[in-house]
What does this fold into?
Amino acid sequence: MAETQLLDGKTILVTGGTGSFGHQFIRYVLEHYQPKKIIVYSRDEYKQFVMSNESPYREYSKVMRFFIGDVRDKERLERAMEGVDYVVHAAALKQVPACEYNPAEAIKTNVHGAMNVIDASLDQNVKKVVALSTDKAVNPVNLYGGTKLVSDKLFIAANAYAGDKDISFSIVRYGNVAGSRGSVIPFFRNLLAKGETELPITDYRMTRFWISLEEGVKLVIKALEESAGGETFISRIPSFYVKDLAEALQPGIATKETGIRPGEKLHEVMVTAEDAPNTLEFEKNYIVYPQMIFHERQQAAFEAAKKIGRPVEDGFVYSSGTNSQWLSVDEIRTLLATVEEH
It folds into this structure.
């Protein structure tokens, strides 16, 4: 059982609930809590059908609900959120090339969809909303990152509209999850399975943070438990070189530097120097507090956090390229044994 009873007896709605995060989050909640109801809100009926027949969701059918709906549809969101206590917003168009080629669609889902989630949550008296962000929203260089930056700002500012309502909006930010669809681990594994003797690496200097899906889920649980409104929660996790990942997957494998792709960054950045004055460091995470405080609850939470957390240095940047924690090739190899592809 979980250390707290945060989600016991509660109704939780997960947008994009059939995705990798949704699967892991819902499994975790079912295994550690006793929720009243979990609502999977997504637009793909087939994925919902498959999910509803999988373990453990089938065993927990009495608490599972599957709503066909799109975050672009505010009326449907409002209907789905009736009686909901907590919302976890994971729905988004995430593929960088697809967003570049279909910018209007990315805006409709990632920006307008965020606005609909906020409005529906306010109208239905939801207690807490946690939205998933990405490193690409920090100093964005592609449209996906730009839409997620706007989404983040919308969720932070949503606290200004809470008024006397007992509701808070916060953000959880992390980069590519180890083993997630479209990420480097399954890409390299697929090439090796096909018998390739050389792995392409866009730049030998490229680094990434290592975070598992379960660690991402636990960060969302932490945000649900601790947030007062407007915070951005970020895990303190190790970095690795992509070239070391190739070596860990197959010792001695040849590599070829192919050049960085459009919209790609050398390093993942989670906290900028501009955010540093509002950032506190804790044992396992950083929290970026909002520059604008919209109500007394936020101010009280920030002041209380200052007694526990440590302010970061002026000009601090949390980047995978300048991180203080690094994984060796052997450590990467050990972690790879635990990675399931999602």
User: Anything to note?
Assistant: The radius of gyration is 20 Å. Residues 11-175+212-236+270-318 form a domain with the Rossmann fold fold (CATH 3.40.50.720). Residues 164 and 259 are 52 Å apart (CA to CA).
